Amino acid sequence: MTLQFKPYFLFVLLFMGVSVEGILAQNQQGKASYYHKNLSGKKTYSGERYNSYLFTAAHRKYPMGTWLEITNTKSGIKSYVRVNDRGPHQRRLLIDVSFSAAKELGIVGAGIAPVQIRLLEDADLRDTLLSFLQKRDSLILKEHPYTVYVKKAKKKKSKKKKKKKR
């Protein structure tokens, strides 16, 4: 007899006391992309507005407000981001990071990079690291409130025929 995976299996585990962190605790590897600055001001899944200067990310499964450590596997550079959106919508990608996090990780030039994601648990988020991350984001917000970048539309020349007066 083979066991089949049932969709309610996750809910049974949660009811039995298995935490979401326990299920998602393993490191994930995949490709990351980034949100462009043009999306600044758009609402995210969590309800807050996207700010390209904050260190945020979009992930399909992690709960909102979860802190993640993202490592670029090619360069070894690390960045810490907070999940505030759902995505990415392309199946080949694992995570979308904000423009600032992408600059820190070195993704901006290539557009996509291989990364490793690690969930920061309570033991990792001691008072010093958590306060540092929160102060970093609050200072960035004071300096760069979300800005909406709007492309200027070119004016079309109207070719209206002038009516002659009689």
UniProtKB/TrEMBL annotation:
Pfam families per the UniProt record, alphabetical: DPBB_1
Gene Ontology BP, a term: cell wall organization
Taxonomic superkingdom: Bacteria
Record-annotated RlpA-like protein double-psi beta-barrel domain positions: 28-117
Single GO MF annotation: lytic endotransglycosylase activity
Keywords tagged on the record: Cell wall biogenesis/degradation, Lipoprotein, Lyase
Catalytic activity, EC: 4.2.2.-
SUPFAM superfamilies the UniProt entry points to: Barwin-like endoglucanases
PANTHER family attached to this UniProt entry: ENDOLYTIC PEPTIDOGLYCAN TRANSGLYCOSYLASE RLPA (PTHR34183)
Function, in words: Lytic transglycosylase with a strong preference for naked glycan strands that lack stem peptides.
Family: Belongs to the RlpA family.
Protein name: Probable endolytic peptidoglycan transglycosylase RlpA
